[in-house]
Amino acid sequence: MKNRFTLVDVIAAVSELKNLIGMRVNNVYDIDNKTYLLKLSRTDEKAVILFESGVKLHQTFHDRPKSQTPSSFSMKLRKHINQKRLTDIKVIGFDRLVELTFGSEDRINKLIIELYDRGNVILTDGDYTILNILRVRTDKDTSVKFAVKEKYTYSASNLSQENIQNQKENSINEQDFDEILGRIPEGKTEQLVKIIAPLTKCGNPVTKEILARCGLKADLRVERNSETEKEIRSKLSEIQKITTEIWNQVENRPLGQITYTEEKSIANGTICEVYQDFNPILINNLPNAQKFKEFPTFCEAVDEFFVRIETQKLEQKSLNIEKQALKKLENVEKDQKERIDALVLAQEQREKMADRIIVNNDLVERALLLIRTALANQFSWVTIEEMRKKAAANGDPTASAILELKFENNEFIMGLGDPYDEDEEILKVPIDIALNAAKNAQKYFVDKKSAAEKVKKTVASSGKAIKNAQEKAKITLDHVKIVQEVKKTRKIMWFEKFRWFISSEGYIVVAGREAQQNELLVKKYLRAGDIYMHADVRGASSVIIRNHKSTSEIPPKTLTEAAQMAVCYSNAWEANISASAWWVHHHQVSRTAPTGEYLPAGSFMIRGKKNFMPPSQLVMGLGVLFRMDDESIERHREAEKTIEEESVKIEESPEKLEEEEEEFPDVEIKIGEEEELTMIEVGPKVVAGQNKNQQNQQKNPKKETAQYLEEKANEELANLGAPHLQPHEYAQYKKKKYRHQQGHRQWELQLICAIIFLLFYFL
Predict the structure, then answer these.
(1) What's the pLDDT score for residue 703?
(2) pLDDT above 90: percentage of residues in the chain
(3) Which member of 289, 377, 392, 573 lies 3.0 to 4.6 Å from 399 by CB, making a disulfide possible if both were Cys?
(4) Nearest partner of 51 among 122, 103, 138, judged by Cα
(5) CA distance 101 to 616
(6) Which residue, 676, 721, 684, 678, is CA-closest to 701?
(7) Nearest Cα to Cα of residue 561 among 598, 519, 533
(8) Is 576 left (phi over 0), alpha (psi -120 to 50) or beta?
């Protein structure tokens, strides 16, 4: 499996990263001590460059977990290159060495990334004086030290464009070919790909493709001074030609390819893709077991490849943590079980010992008498042991039953069998010299009882211990389930900088936050077929409904929801009085004022008839929008197709509609197309440069707005049949009416609850 860039990969990545020249550095982040992110942006475009010292450099399209606190190296990079433009990016010489230039003139900084060996990252000024370095080192060949305040140097002989081009066009020659062949021991063979790969500098996969295009097998064994060598030597010029073509393709139009194998998962039996390699060209000469995926760019292919590898590492790490947690739980359960088993076994053993003493009571008493007599006669312990052995050798049954003397513990060990069952094995029973046989048996019965109590206590305590261990394991496993996945970066949609929602019928409705956004909405985002909506209140937000097709009509439900949004984002919200909204088509909205008039910023001319909506409620809600995975998106599309097909079937035919119009001619209302010219001022005027006092004044409704709202209130009062109320009393009237309705509903609810209670009580 490929795990780092080759030279051809570096050149392909740099070729694509040149598209980011001119973007400004927003910030620098570190993932670990070797991997860093450069966040860039320009108008309506953002990009992130990821580089890992000694491994890779490419544009990333995924959100990666960043360090909680930036490292000192990240802070140094932020200090010097933040807010500077990326002015150049190039490969230094013909090597895996990349230079990024930030800033211009006397504020130039260079970031040099070494992608070979152990790698390094060096930040310098315009004169290549090192400002910061990731890894301080000294070159073994030249003894040049790379450290802060030192000059960064590299071999100047490889830097000229002529020299670089010469290396590309003449990298495969007989002199270098002979040098590599000379390293093969006499009588030994080497694979052809291992001989040619150092000459092409393209890596094994691309070199195999080059050899395949030349009609050569990559695994061909080559021996010095053989016919195979002569055949290869004759095709060196052809190999060079194809290699040059590949270099030109990689520099000008690199592609993205990932090769993979399909393997069956042992855990669940599903087929999973195991990535093997990534390449900047399309390789067709693959092993039979391998397949490939194509990507539009090389950076996308590399990003996808390493994201899969990183995700697999995270999953493996999570799996190890899960195994450790389960192993700890298993060990706790095993330990508690062993303790309980040991206590149960001791309990059974004590009972057996007591039973053996009882059935061998006479033998135990004789043994006690023998030992006590010897001790009473003041024989030494050694003498008593010799006497016991001698008596046992002579066949004395009592001496033979005594197996061991332990005078230091004031006891001796007897081997007691079962006289009623000869098949029972002899049991070793410690006998206390100070007690008789009955007392010894009683002692073991007491020990058995205490062991039984210990078993109960141990079972109870082990249950608690196992429960605690299970809770800890559950917490660990729940934490493991939250795998820190590398997710693809979500592209921010254009409408997210405005106020927006998606209607019940799937239309995007967008409103401006202030006057500048209102003007931007109309100028940039109002298209043919879209609807412009505005509350019938001075200073409200502009609302546009984006139509799916320029020829289709917006459904009434979407118009109602958009009207409610327009009213809520107006001064009617603060005044707590409902108002109406109106809508017009896109071609009725204009920024051109009539002759002799002037349109201030955030104002538009509305030409033609305005379509008024019913008064809207001052109600707003909050919704959560989820992003579906690819499979769900496909299923959702199929469901939408089914719904559309059903709706087409349900739609009435034009002939039927004409028949209804003939039967009920009075339902057809013709609206006159009188030309009207209206100037509206949209949105709260929040213009850059206003002071806080001016902005605070705009938060309160103006006199004209208050007067208009009073007129609207009078109209509603007239409709309600209460013209005697004053407009300022209208709010109090509505509140009293609302409280009365709420009290009536509460009384009804209490009555229902009482009836239900009585039914349950009597039944």
Answers:
(1) 43
(2) 23
(3) 392
(4) 122
(5) 57
(6) 684
(7) 533
(8) left
> What gap in Å lies between CA 15 and CA 315, rounded to an integer?
33
Averaged over 671-694, what is the pLDDT?
A: 45
Per the model's pLDDT, the better-predicted residue between 629 and 301 turns out to be 301
Please give the pLDDT value at position 684. Answer: 45
Give the count of beta carbons closer than 10 Å to the beta carbon of residue 650.
7
User: Can you tell me which residue has the tokens 């590299």?
Assistant: 154
- For tokens 């040619």, what's the residue? 196
- Does position 692 have pLDDT exceeding 50, yes or no? no
Query: Residue 530: what pLDDT?
Result: 92
* Cα–Cα dist 295/259, whole Å: 11
Q: Where are the beta strands (DSSP E) in 265-391?
A: 271-279, 290-295
The two tokens of residue 595 are 């002759």
More confident residue, 249 or 671: 249
Task: Say if residues 536 and 511 touch (Cβ distance below 8 Å).
Answer: no
Q: How many CB atoms lie within 10 A of CB 209?
A: 21
Residue 749's CB is within 10 A of a number of other CB atoms, namely 10
Please give the pLDDT value at position 546: 93
Q: Supply the pLDDT for residue 709.
A: 57
CA pair distance 763, 753, nearest whole angstrom: 15
Report the interhelical angle of 192-200 vs 236-252 (nearest 10°). 50
Nearest to 531 by CA among 513, 505, 549: 549
| Chain Cα centroid distance, residue 436 | 76
Assign residue 119 a region: left if phi > 0, alpha if psi is -120 to 50, beta otherwise?
left
Which pLDDT value is given to residue 74?
94
Type of residue at 559? L
Q: Which fold has domain 7-159?
A: ibrinogen binding protein from staphylococcus aureus fold (2.30.310)
* Residue 380 scores a pLDDT above 80: yes
Q: Under a CB-based contact definition with an 8 Å cutoff, are residues 193 and 204 in contact?
A: yes
Q: How far from 655 is each of 72, 660, 667, 668, CA to CA, in Å?
A: 77, 9, 17, 16
pLDDT at 122: 95
Among all chains, which residue has been given the structure tokens 């590898």?
309
